[in-house]
Design a protein that fits this description.
Blueprint (H helix, E strand, L loop, with lengths): L6 E7 L5 H12 L4 E7 L8 H9 L25 E4 L2 H5 L10 E4 L12 H23 L8 H12 L11
Helix pairs in contact: 1-4
Length: about 170
């Protein structure tokens, strides 16, 4: 993989309100120039979760362009050719995904859903911070890969291994 443009990366989740949004924000910051991040959901909630926005704002991310959207936007004419698609929740990993423009490489990087955490505000905020930490770690490993020198099989193994890092959730396959 050696492109004359940034690699397009899509983070998928069901609701597109927390994990996938965080992935999009992180890769656009730390992979700027080399990667362009996007996020989407199979059943988007229509708004980014307020604790996602709070966390990203505290970490000095620009959140003005972040929005909850359907993965159908990325199958429409004129959608960016995707190079990588990462599912970050088990529901999206087990769903039948559309045919993506660009025939991207895919991997499952499952994480616990911070939106599902009960408790007081501090406990819930910690769950969102943990999600950020795990995604930041995985994305940091990913953007450090020597993409131009890895063959497709080696790259796929690396992508799958990143998804098995601490905090990974493995979907049950029937």
């Amino acid at each position: 993989m050696n492109l004359d443009r940034p690699y397009n990366v899509l983070f998928l989740c069901t609701g597109n309100s927390a994990r996938s949004i965080v992935g999009e924000a992180i890769i656009n910051r730390i992979g700027a120039g080399k990667f362009k991040g996007y996020s989407a959901g199979s059943m988007p909630k229509g708004q980014v979760h307020p604790l996602t926005i709070n966390l990203l704002n505290k970490l000095n991310y620009d959140t003005t362009a972040l929005r909850s959207k359907s993965w159908e936007e990325f199958t429409a004419p004129g959608a960016p050719d995707l190079d990588f698609v990462f599912t970050v929740c088990d529901n999206a990993a087990n769903e039948v995904c559309p045919i993506w423009p660009g025939q991207p490489m895919t991997a499952h990087w499952g994480l616990p859903d911070p939106v599902e955490v009960d408790g007081d505000q501090a406990h819930r905020a910690l769950a969102f911070a943990d999600t950020y930490r795990m995604l930041n770690n995985r994305i940091g490993i990913f953007i450090g890969l020597p993409l131009a020198s890895l063959d497709e099989l080696s790259l796929q193994k690396q992508l799958d291994d990143i998804g098995r890092k601490k905090g990974a959730v493995t979907p049950e396959r029937a």
